[in-house]
Structure formats: structure tokens, C-alpha cells
Write the C-alpha cells for this entry.
Amino acid sequence: MPPPAAEGSILEANPADQAELLRDALAPQRWPVPLESFPPGSALVGGAVRDALLGRLSSTPDLDLVVPADALGETRRLAKRYGGACVVLDEQRDMARLVVKGWTIDLARQEGANLTADLQRRDYRINAIALRLAPTPELVDPCGGLQDLNAGLLTAVAEQNLIDDPLRLLRGIRIAAELNFKIAADTWPLLNKHRKALPKAAPERIQAELTKLVQAPGADQAMEQLRCSGLLSPWAPTEDAGSQADLKRPPEPLTPSAASLTQEERQAALPLVRLTGLLSDHGLKTLRFSRRQIQRCGVLRRWQQMDDGLGFDSLSEERRLKLHTELGDDLPALILQLQPPFQEAWLERWRNPVDPLFHPQPPLDGTTLQDALGITPGPQLGQLLQHLAVERAFGRLPNREAALTAARRWWMTSQPPRCD
């Protein structure tokens, strides 16, 4: 459960004052489009309203507006007037995006007879709150979203709303993770009940939700919820694809295992660890993750599977160097799975930027070796470079001179004997 609303927050204010306070918090005078330029009857909805009420609004929040009609035409008009770009999101549903001066403003045609009907078609009650952009602002909350914000709950507006867009099943877990909210007891069974519908959503949309989820403050709880619900079964690693726990209530959060890492190290390592744990290599490809992200997860997964439980001490020097070279800046993600004594030792060495094994660098390059030894490019040169890399990684080449001496020795002993 999240902490109670901070003293003086909009949620704690007199209900009669909340609309004015919300508009002030949203600071529309900073928006790239003046309020009076939006069509009469427009209302701000969704995340910006929710985050402003919670006091967690960013300096340039994404704005979602409902307009009475012709959202696409209005977006084109605003783009032309204010020098922005119009991106068609869904022509059939009349949704478009205005990108202007670093801001993103989405416009969508109102669904239903009025704003209340539109809000009642949304996913979760905390996202079904609107602020009418009128001279006198009005807060519209037909579903009880303010009550849920105060309680730290995520409650579905209606089961059918989740069915209409199955991505909302995953989005619920993501939002709960970002806000550290609890999924309501009557909503959790719905996420499980309709989990097999998620593949109907576009893979790019699923990818975007997961990218946000693995970086969220409550991601550890979300990881366990995803495993228990089976939402990601089509893309999960084989061993997790069929794991199902109690589907009647959401699982409790896992205890974080990254306490020994700095905040910077956690931000770099944990999203990669989580993504690798949630999705198989095939799943990453199916959900259209970038080639770089697929490669990072694949390398981490491969070395995780090779863990000997002894801090990788059973590896040869060549294999140990390969581990550090392949993982590079992602090494803290592997360190997280080590036993505490090894974890502490590895972290100490990782934090030393000149440690030759944990931050491997070639002692000499191929051009230098060719000039110094008079050798030509070929397999032997590659073998020599690998030999020197291992020697330096394990502390046997303290400087450039030692590296040249070792190179000459290796080269001489590797040549076949001459016949006079």
C-alpha cells in the first residue's frame, strides 16, 4: 500500500477547490498550445490528471484530450497553427497526436453521448478522471477514481472494457508497479480470466508496456504477478510458461535482491535482469524488441545458465575473460545472482575502473604488434592478441613494455623450428 497523500496535496483538499488546484498544478500556461485554442467542450483525461492529483507530474507531461468531434482535423489545425507535427494514431477511431516543441498532445474523439459515458469506457478508475478545460474548470469522476487514488488501489472500470482492448490487462500491472498501488481484489481475477486475450494486442504495444514495467519502482511485485497470472505465457521462458499460483488474489511482492548495489547500478542492472526473466529469446523477437536489447538479454541468459555456484571459479582463464568481455557494462546484472560472498567480491572489483579483468582492455593493438614483430595479419595474430588479453586480465602484464616482451616470447615459441 502506498503512503497516504502528502499534507496539502490536491487529494486532501476541499472537494470544491480540487478542480482549481488541479488546473494550477497542470500549469496550462506552460503548454505549447493555449487552452483557448482547443475546441469548446475539450477535457483533459488519463495519466496527466492522475499524476497531477498524486503530485508526481513531470515538467512536460504527455497530455491526453477528449474533444467532442473531428479529433484528426483539430490536430491538423493545431499542428499548422503552432508549427507541430500531426501523427495519425487511429483514423477509424478518430485519434491523432500533436508533437510540438518537445510536448506530446493526443486528441481523441469523445466516445458515447457525453464525457461521463466516455470515461465509463476506460480501463481503470484512476484513469477515468477528467478535467474540463472550461473558464471554470470542472473535475469529472463518475467511476470513483479519486477514492481509489486515496486508497492506493487499481480497480477496473468494467470487465468488458478490459476485453475490448486486451493490452489493458498488462497495463494494469504496469500502472500498479509504477504507482506502488495494490490491484483490487475484484480486479485481479479479471486479469487472470482474460489472460489468453493479450496476444490480440499489437506486439509493439506490449513491448512498450513491458519496457516501462521493468523500470518501475514496484517491478519486483509486478514480476511475480505476471508469472502467477500467466499473462506472458506465450513469450515466457519455458520453465515459467506454465507456472500458475493462486489466481484469486495477487501475489505479495518479492524481497528485492539488489540491496548491495548503488542506485545507479540498480537502474542499469535490474531492468535487464527482469526482462531476461520475463521473456525468452523468441519472446523478445516476437514482441519486436530491438536487436541490441535481444542481444543483451541473450548474453546475460547464457552466462546465468553457466553459473557454477562458485563465482565462476571453475571456468578457464579464457572463458572467464570472455564472460567479462561479452557482458561489459551489463556485468552487475549477472552479479545479482551470485551468492553473497562472491557478490561482494565481484562488486568491489567492478567498482575499480582499472581492474584488468572486470574492465578488460587489450594491452596492444594489431598494428602495434605488426610493426614491432614484423608479422602479417592472420590467424596467428588473432591468437597472439587473445593470449595478451588473457595475460593482462589476470595481472601478468603490468605495462606496455611487459606486453611487448610477452608478445615477442609467444611469437618466437609459436614458430615452427627452422631446418638448416
